[in-house]
Design goal:
- Helices cover about 35% and strands about 25% of the residues.
- It has a domain at about 5-80 and about 155-255: 3-Layer(aba) Sandwich (Rossmann fold).
- With about 260 residues, it is an alpha/beta fold.
- A hairpin with a 2-residue loop joins strand 4 (about 60-65) and strand 5 (about 70).
- It is built from 10 helices and 10 strands.
- Strands 6-7-8-3-9-10 form a 6-stranded mixed sheet, with helices on both faces.
């Protein structure tokens, strides 16, 4: 049984005088523990699709099932890592990472200990009493990842989480996020404009065509690349071949 199933997803935005179809006829299955990416030109509906998968937006047509149940009933099983970390500046790092557990009524001595241990594994064991403004951008994103994983979500939504970081920090975080998600056997969906990021981190890359967005092509990442860390994967000969193939497909989708 597939972990996540999208069936015939279509979505149209209506105003008083017009309508815009953002997505049309999107169907796909995601296995548990799989890491997939959505790529596509601006305006192809990637963010709309992510919102629908998360149960935040009801599609005009179609359905999303998570573990064979409507995603609307599984919102607590979904975690987010976004471009901005959205840490509360007036709360300490410890208070920030425990917030989700507290809101969900799941903050116990055991869950707190597990979360603080994860913070330590992220090389952030000495920042519990610090405030977000005292940390670098990369450190803040690591804190955001800990906060997301603390509630033990079954599905992770990654919406361009590294795009605001410098290149060196971005590469380090790609490795860290990838290894962490693999160790926890998490299922993840990444929305990105970065072809290299998608190839280095994913099992499959879904390329969406623009206006309205629909699945244009699926790229399967070879095991040789998937078995490597994202940083090392970028040096593999097959990486450049895939990068060029996806680049050419993207070019073909751009309006002339």
């Amino acid at each position: 049984m597939d972990f996540l199933t999208l069936k015939g997803i279509c979505h149209t935005y209506f105003t008083k005088s017009s309508f815009t179809t953002a997505l049309t006829d999107i169907s796909l299955d995601v296995r548990e523990g799989e890491f997939i990416s959505f790529l596509g030109p601006s305006g192809c509906g990637k963010t709309t699709l992510l919102s629908i998968i998360a149960g935040l937006l009801k599609p005009t047509e179609g359905s999303v099932l998570l573990e064979n149940k409507p995603v609307e009933s599984k919102k607590n099983d979904i975690g987010y890592m976004l471009q901005q970390d959205y840490l509360f500046p007036w709360k300490t790092i410890e208070e920030n990472i425990l917030l989700g557990l507290k809101v969900n009524g799941r903050l116990t001595a055991d869950s707190k200990a597990k979360t603080l241990h994860l913070l330590e594994k992220m090389s952030l064991g000495k920042v519990e009493t610090s405030y977000p403004k005292q940390l670098s951008g990369g450190m803040r994103q690591r804190v955001a990842l800990v906060r997301t994983l603390a509630t033990e979500p079954k599905l992770l939504m990654l919406d361009e989480p590294f795009s605001a970081l410098d290149y060196q920090t971005k590469l380090k975080l790609e490795d860290l996020v990838s290894s962490t998600l693999k160790s926890f056997k998490k299922t993840a969906i990444l929305v990105t404009h970065d072809i290299g990021e998608a190839v280095a981190m994913s099992d499959r890359v879904f390329l969406l065509s623009p206006r309205p967005g629909k699945l244009h092509k699926t790229f399967f990442i070879p095991e040789e690349i998937r078995s490597m860390s994202p940083f090392n994967a970028r040096s593999h000969p097959m990486f450049n071949e895939l990068f060029q193939s996806i680049w050419k497909e993207l070019e073909s989708l751009e309006p002339e």
